């Protein structure tokens, strides 16, 4: 595992990481500020005074670029520089560790977008290298979807793969693509099941691998939420599971101990003893990757957050909602963001509220009062998002320490993909 520059042992790094995420300012920006309450609670004033002065006096586009790319603006306050430097110093390196791969044949690549193709090519190489070193021929692919990774492992590396997905339609799609791709080596068997814990008995009962043993590696390419933790636990709880190789995603869906899940995050004793806990907002923040934002995507993010926060202020002022209890609107079509009036009408319709409960004149009045504060939303949202690599580092280190605490021969974190193509690129590897 490559630790950030200046660290040569995981324990010291974890302690420094923990100290930073316990800092009140980190807590405020990562999960204490819910963007929906921004105007209701005047959260702009929660920032350090010298930061506010800098943000108010500097062109917003320069500030955003500075926060994301570390533009080192001369007027940036020292306290902000120290904070941003700490974020970067504590983030696990994400530069891609290149390796030899086998090109995916055209027949197997059908349906794969460039991002998926890149992920499958590199993860299959890592899994195959692990399997060869342990003399294992069997792989269980969890959250396999339509089986892109499973088919590649079979065809390119001759492995026997059980592809498990909870969605029957995905499983059926995998079987369809199998019939078209005509895998030449190994084997792929599909199985539809929802994995709620580390119990693989049903999967083992259903599987007939083309080998004398069911010893296997469990893997997951962007195993959603707690499926990553379950995959890691399978290595500890199942005799036939000899190794794991899993990339997590959707940290907002992780189950946590503080929410009453005994086996939830943090799963390691080390981070549990430290009292580490991330609320839902913080875990959602951990999913961000501002370094990959384009001008178009970031503009859309900002506009959506501004309209949503202003709408929340409007309906609370009108007595249609309570402060601190945001109503779930969900996604709206692109045309709803043409202007704030269109957004309010669409949001009211989604919430099944009468359109006449807020007049167009009221909507326009609120927009006029708050339109100059859209830049504040942009800055605070970006400030929050740049903390994502630290949040993700904590989550990944928790998984690393769980493996170490269970005395496995291998516990590693590998930066497996090109970050610009696939920001969730930290692969947890464990082996007996």
Index terms:
432 residues, alpha/beta, seven-stranded mixed sheet, globular
Can you walk me through this structure?
The protein is of the alpha/beta class. Helix content is 47%, strand content 11%. The chain has 18 helices and seven strands. The protein has a seven-stranded mixed β-sheet with strand order 3-2-1-4-5-7-6, with helices on both faces. Helix 9 links the parallel strand 2 and strand 3. Helix 1 packs across helix 18 (388-405).
Fold blueprint:
Layout: H1 10-21, H2 24-32, H3 49-57, H4 60-69, H5 78-89, H6 106-109, H7 114-134, E1 138-142, H8 148-157, E2 160-165, H9 168-181, E3 187-192, H10 201-206, E4 216-224, H11 227-237, E5 241-249, H12 269-274, H13 280-285, H14 295-317, H15 340-350, H16 360-370, H17 374-385, H18 388-405, E6 410-415, E7 426-431
Parallel strand pairs: 1-2, 1-4, 2-3, 4-5
Antiparallel strand pairs: 5-7, 6-7
Helix pairs in contact: 1-18, 4-17, 7-8, 14-17
**Structural class determined from secondary elements:** alpha/beta
Rg, please? 24 Å
Average pLDDT: 93
Q: Beta-sheet strand percentage? A: 5-15%
Q: How would you spell out the order of helices and strands? A: HHHHHHHEHEHEHEHEHHHHHHHEE
Annotation field: number of helices: 18
Taking pLDDT < 50 over at least 5 consecutive residues as the criterion, the unreliable ranges are: none
Chain oligomer state:
single chain
Helical content (DSSP H or I, runs of 4+)? 40-55%
The rounded distance between the terminal residues' Cα atoms is 17 Å
Query: Order of strands side by side in the largest beta sheet?
Result: 3-2-1-4-5-7-6
- Silhouette: globular
Largest sheet: 7 strands, mixed
Task: Please count the beta strands (DSSP E, at least 2 residues each).
Answer: 7
